[in-house]
Amino acid sequence: MTNEPDNKAAANDVRDRQRQIAADIRRQILTGEFKPGDKVPSTAQLCERYGVSNLTTQRALAILKKQGFVRGESGVGVFVTANQPIAVEANHYPGQASDANPYPWISEIASHGRRKTSRLLSVDEVTPPVAVAAAYDLEPDTRVIRRRLLLLLDDAPAELVTNYYRTDLARGTPLTEHRLIRGGSLRVLAELGKHAGPAVDDVEATMPTIDEFIALQMPDDMPVLRQFRTVYTTDGEPIEVTEMIKAAHRHKARYLLPGPDEA
Questions:
Q1: Among 15, 41, 145, 167, which residue's beta carbon has the most beta carbons within 10 A?
Q2: 9-80: CATH, from 1.10.10.10, 3.40.50.720, 1.10.8.420, 3.40.50.10540
Q3: Could you report the per-residue pLDDT of 219-246, keeping only the tens digit for each?
Q4: Kind plus residue range of the DSSP H or E element containing 90
């Protein structure tokens, strides 16, 4: 292993020692120093490396097992799992689906050898959060249609998606029905004459709320990625506002930047 830890500096970190060690090993997994299938150093080696007791090392490995980064084989050792975070292209646009490919994001995930499915949680009419009301420039007390979905990666909860639509646009359409929409919401909006144009994403890392922690079965001390997206028509009318809460241990963002001659 490279990048020897500064065990003296650890005293300035308010986290428990086992959490510090788990974070260090997790970083080595995420950066590829430990690859899927690799055996993690023995507890004796980790104790020597980090200057801690066997119990602390065992607790650090237990954290990583709970987060899905490693698995133990009795009498053999601890190994890195294949359940690595999926790289999500930060500049990927959720284009309208087709009959041949009703959910493009499923195909994208499948290309990585993983399986992603969706589960509709609820469809209701609510008073929108402040950020949603601002995105739509709504008058106070104006209600919106809300659709909440849970996305699963290899059957494990990975992302909460909440879509918001203006009631004057969504009422009487499949957007208000309690069922998954074949082809996605953008197809429904296009059929209403609202063709998607540019979209704006705001992304931040934050700790999960209680509801998010439970729904995504989050490990302790693991943040989520909050992606707040507003989709506009080509003439600037907002037609869909979405909040995506991604479990950080199951996703990572990838930015594809144009070269200087392409910008």
A1: 145
A2: 1.10.10.10
A3: 877 899 999 999 999 999 999 999 999 9
A4: none
